[in-house]
Design goal:
This protein is α/β, with parallel strands linked by helices and 226 residues long. Helix 2 runs parallel beside helix 3 and helix 4 packs across helix 6.
Length: 226
Amino acid sequence: MLKLMAQKIKILLVDDHPLVREWLINLINQRPDFQVCGETGNAPEALQLIETIKPDIAIVDISLASGSGIELIKNIKARQFDVAVLVLSMHDELLYAERALRAGAGGYIMKSEATRKVVQAIHNVLDGEIYVSEKVTALMTQKFVAGRSNQTASPIEQLSDRELEVFQLLGRGYNTRQIADHLRVGFKTIQGYSARIKVKLNLTTATELLREAVRWHEEDNSGRRL
């Protein structure tokens, strides 16, 4: 953190909603020690920007116009870019925060709390600390104490990161071809993910899978889930 004190902290915004990026730019640039140095709504362009402008921290959403936030974080870490990552998302932290941290993020904050907490979260993550809510901390501690062998709280938690992305996109109305294009993988690959999702969620048909994905997506957006 000391090396950053002499100059402004460079921040990259990765969010697929232009209005959210505009709001964050106005919020962050009010700080004399912060500067938004780039913005994008998709994962491939985010990787290019990280390589060229070398931000100190990237603020990343889970859902992106192309690719996904979780996979983007994994790619950032795989390429060993010297950039911290803070996830800022509307999606339920109880399901996504631990996944984001496992992928390599330093923190997770809900958009509903960003105005009050994003500054502290940025500083904490840049200092090498983990930033999550007290609710997430309590849940992760409970899981650690109980042990991984215990049954998970929700069948959705059994899905891998990629399976969860496919399930989420199904709920948003994407068909198999569109999901394949969005995630930049093959059509048969998505069919394979869908088959595994059905097994893990105890579903039989594609119609049941679609119905459950839509229901879950609506609850996720309304904040009723979990």
